[in-house]
Amino acid sequence: MNSLWYGSNPLAWLLLPFSLLFWGVSSLRRLMYVLHLKKVHRFPVPVIVVGNITVGGTGKTPLVVWMCEHLAQQGYKSGVVARGYGGKASHWPQQVRPDSDPVMAGDEAVLLARLTGCPVCVGPDRPAAVRELLEYTDCDIVVSDDGLQHYAMGRDMEIVVVDGDRGLGNEFLLPAGPLRELPGRLRQADLVISAGPWWDAIPVTRIDDPVVLPLLDLSEEPQPLTRASGEKVHAVAGVGNPRRFFALLEQCGLEIVPHVFPDHYQYRREDLAFDDQLPVLMTEKDAVKYARFATERHWLVRISVIPDETFINQFDELLQGLKHGQETA
């Protein structure tokens, strides 16, 4: 769909009647929550939603990881909720630990548990996931990875992440374009940030010195990715925007043989058993699922992000407002 949504494919115009239908249904659905015809569930702790208005990866998860670390520095005990997309568990919601099976709970859920060190609960019913998180943990603030359009889940702050590389594409709604909601939805969010430069007025996250770790032993000391500069490697990405990962490796001086897999792909051993001796580098999201097949040639690239000061200051100001509101309540 990249050529349709992020290019100038005339087929997009033919799909506009279906986009109009999508807009009508989604707008009516949201209006029902606004008019209280559908219940919005509220919670005794603040809920921060980190979402997007486009389909596909925009860099939400790295920002959620940063946010949990930042909140811990402010004295908060964060909990995280997510969809658990791709998980095959027989019941939901699911409490997720760093050693949970990604086949059951979903790859991103396990990754969040590992990288944040926070309690994680996932399920398609977001309010139920929040309730279970609050029932079984002592978290005093909840961060939702995605869920901007899950209006049944009450929220106290909305943060929208935009892919700086792809932006909003052709700015058409599904299926003619990648948008879940119209671009004007950005003005209704508390904060907007882009993963990479997009608009000059929008704060940006920057990647903080990516490192590599061997899949066979993640306890080893991480090594800077730049140490592999000049090497030829297989680069594996089964994420929403693989081009961003490949560009990062090339910026660090690596010569890559790119391999694109569908987002949330469930790997088999033979998928990454290439018939040469080149190292295989993959995103951490892919590594969660391939770890059980790993050999000494398989490595993950760990990426962390840091928002610019403008975003951090705005976030902290909003956070103080949430804290004051909770104390008053």
Describe the structure.
This protein is α/β, with parallel strands linked by helices. The protein has two domains: 2-205 and 307-328, 3-Layer(aba) Sandwich (Rossmann fold); 209-303. The chain is built from ten helices and 15 strands. It has helices spanning 2-5, 11-14, 16-34, 60-73, 102-105, 107-116, 126-136, 242-251, 284-290, 309-328; strands spanning 47-51, 78-82, 94-96, 120-122, 141-145, 157-163, 191-195, 204-207, 211-214, 223-224, 232-237, 255-260, 280-283, 298-302, 305-307. The longest helix has 20 residues, at 309-328.
Q: How are the SSEs ordered, and which strands pair?
A:
Layout: H1 2-5, H2 11-14, H3 16-34, E1 47-51, H4 60-73, E2 78-82, E3 94-96, H5 102-105, H6 107-116, E4 120-122, H7 126-136, E5 141-145, E6 157-163, E7 191-195, E8 204-207, E9 211-214, E10 223-224, E11 232-237, H8 242-251, E12 255-260, E13 280-283, H9 284-290, E14 298-302, E15 305-307, H10 309-328
Parallel strand pairs: 1-5, 1-6, 2-4, 2-5, 6-7, 7-8, 11-12, 11-13, 13-14
Antiparallel strand pairs: 3-4, 8-15, 9-10, 9-14
Helix pairs in contact: 4-6, 6-9
